[in-house]
Predict the 3D structure of the following.
Amino acid sequence: MPFKIDLLQASFTALTLIIFLGTVHSVKNNTYLDTSDPLITHLPHHLHNTHYFATKSNFLNVVFIKRAWAWTSTSFLFLWMTSPRQQQSIRRLSKWAAATAAWLVFTSWFFGPALIERFIAASGGECTIALPSGASFPIPNEFCFTKSRISPLTHPWLFAYPLLLPEGPWTTTPRMRRGHDVSGHIFLLTMSVLFLSDQLTLSLRSSPSTWTHAHKYAVIFTSAIIAIWLFAAYTTSVYFHTPLEKLTGYLLGTAGYAFTWII
C-alpha cells in the first residue's frame, strides 16, 4: 500500500520547529555568532574549542552545506530519472529550474550583485577589509559585489596609511559587513527541504512494490539528504547569525519554494 503521509507538511513543520527552537536556544545560551559584526566575524567562534559544529571547518559545513544546491540537484535528478515514465514530467523539471533560478538570484547574481548582497547594502552594510591584526576598514561596495581579491600590491591606494599595511605577502577577499546579513544557509536549506519533500511525495504516493531498485536507492538517498538539511538547519540556528537574520533567511527560503509553484 502507498504511504499515507503528507511529507511536505511534515517537513515544513519539522523545519519550522527546528529553526525556532535552535534560535531560542542560541539566544538563551548565547551560542550564536553575529556574522555581520566586522570586529568579531573574522575570529573563531567563541565556542569553537568545545562545540564541533561551531567551527566553519566542520565536516557538515565543508562537504554538504557549502555545496547544498549541488547535493539537492543531484538528489532530485536521481529521483526524477528513476521515476516511472509517467512521473518524468517537464513540470517537475520546470520546478527544479525555477528553484535553481531563485538560488542564483538570491545568492549569486541578479543583473550584478545578488539580492542578498543588495539587501545588506541597502540596510546600511559596507564592504570591509579585515586585516590580520584584527583591524578593519571600509572600501567601496563594488569590490565586494565583484568578489575582488585585495592586497597592498594590487590595490595600493586602498592602503594609504602605513598603519594599514600588513606584514609580509598578504591578500584577502573583502566581505559585506554591518547591515542586515540574511542567513544564506537558512535560506538555501529551507528551500531545499521543501523542494525535495515535494518531489519525494510523488514516490511515496505509489506502492514501493512498483519501484525499481534504482528508484528505491533514489528515495533512500533523497530522504537522507532531507535529514542532513534538517540537521544543518539546527546547527546553523544554534551557532550562526542573529535571530532576525535567521528569520529572514527562513522567509526567503519559503518564498523561493513558493516561486516554483508560481512558475
